[in-house]
Amino acid sequence: MYAVSFQTLIGMGVYLLAMIAIGLWYARRSNTNPEEYFLGNRGLGPWVAAISAEASDMSGWLLMGLPGVAYFTGCGEAFWTAVGLAAGTWINWRLVAKRLRMYSQTANNAITLPEFFSNRFHDTKRILMTAAAVMNLVFFSIYVGAQFVTFAKVFAYAFKAEQYYTVMVILGAAIVLVYTLLGGFLAASMTDLIQGLLMIGAILVVLAAGFIHAGGFAGAAERLRDIPRFLDIFGIAMPADTAGKAVSGGAVQAIVDGKPLFGAGADYSLLNIISCLAWGLGYFGMPQVLVRFMAVQDPAKIRNSRRIAVTWCCISLVAAVSIGLIGRAVFPDLLTTAGSAENIFLYLSQNFFPPFLAGLVISGILAASMSSSDSYMLIVSSALANDLFKGLFKRDAGETLVMWIARIAMLMVTVFGVTVALSGNQSIFRIVSYAWAGLGASFGPLILFSLFWKRTTLAGAVGGMFSGGATVILWKERISALGGVFGVYELLPAFIISSMVIFLTSLATKPPSTQIIAEFERSKQ
After folding, report:
1. CATH of 2-523 given 3.40.50.1820, 1.20.1730.10, 3.10.350.10, 1.10.10.60
2. Domain ranges in the chain?
3. What digits encode the pLDDT tens for the residues 212-236?
4. Tens digits of per-residue pLDDT, 146-165?
5. CA–CA distance, 260 with 52 (Å, rounded to integer)
6. Which helix (H) or strand (E) holds 405?
7. What confidence tens digit (pLDDT) does each residue in 183-209 have?
8. Rounded to an integer, what distance in angstroms lies between the CA atom of residue 446 and that of residue 436?
């Protein structure tokens, strides 16, 4: 076991050292000024922009969270979530990418999303910038914690060292901190390109091996056919305990005579499907994706980026769901809780490949986690340094001071992310869904109104941002407990309420100035 683990560790170590080397390579170039550090001087080509945007977005959720849901309850939830995300990806690249790239430069060359909002509405009091920066701090800190959970799960499961979970969280945080701290946005984007390619390569290799072991598509379907509603996209399988009661969360599914117990299954209602599809709305408000749009070198090549991004996204999502299903077919009684089911990709990798190769394949999960956490850390540090410190407290701050504040902020958010990771919530899927909803509802409607409705006002923007974020928290913590129609994914009602607040408040307040309207029209050219 030691030799096997050591060889696997070498494979993973090769990957981790390569990421740190990239950070060192870009350290000198990225440390010249804040625009270079936070936005790469708007120099991303089509491939880097597309793959880094998708890799930073999907995170460890793609290779652990989504396959885990498919493994535990079958097609229903996983399939419709994937459909929503794929649709959201295409629409976001089609509608938002080019317009935001042009408008962010027109709006006094904004280099962060909060700065764009502030410049777009001529917010001299920086109310909007401050609010956006605070939203980034709250929800991205949660997101960072989810990625550290992924990192720790990988090492703990791969090396049978669950007792070192805390150590692994800290180790993962430290590695990402080092290369992001040194190389800034360019290092994050280039590592994300490599990590995105590694992610899709790993997931396809594991899927191919799984099909072979399951006896192809027909063999896998035959093994899963006896599980009620498991392969039904309009149904959901119900793992059960010995009393036949459905289990969820940390409850353990019963195994009798080597077979997992399932209940009769249930319909996956229209409300459930709408909840899953609503994940696609989140894309309009994801700063880690939107900042890639702002950093594209040539707006004319965004169409190429869109094709690359959508292709990567669709292949990855289909493969991730399929891995969960194949995992249940090949190892039906292996993982008996919703949380442990998220390890199915790890288990398949270790059982299908030699140790060193397994280490490289497992690095795909590390790639997914690191490609997201580096982007989140950069966004939070830019929110603190550029948007709050310089934008609110010290407007005459020099470039060197801003960058030092950014590094300190990055260290702070890393510590907070570690705290979230150690809080006890081990479900990557659930942590990510909360943060995704918060960001999507806070920024998504505002991005769309900012780019496509010139009548949008500062008051409407502020009201929409706060109402979206507040609704997510209130709905998640209180309203969803009422059940029924109130059990819908909190992103959907929050997105609708935020949009209504922006629209109605904008109509009720003084129209934008002629200068703002002129900038709006100029950004369309």
Report:
1. 1.20.1730.10
2. 2-523
3. 998 888 888 999 998 999 999 999 9
4. 777 777 777 766 666 666 67
5. 39
6. helix 399-421
7. 566 666 776 777 778 788 888 999 999
8. 15
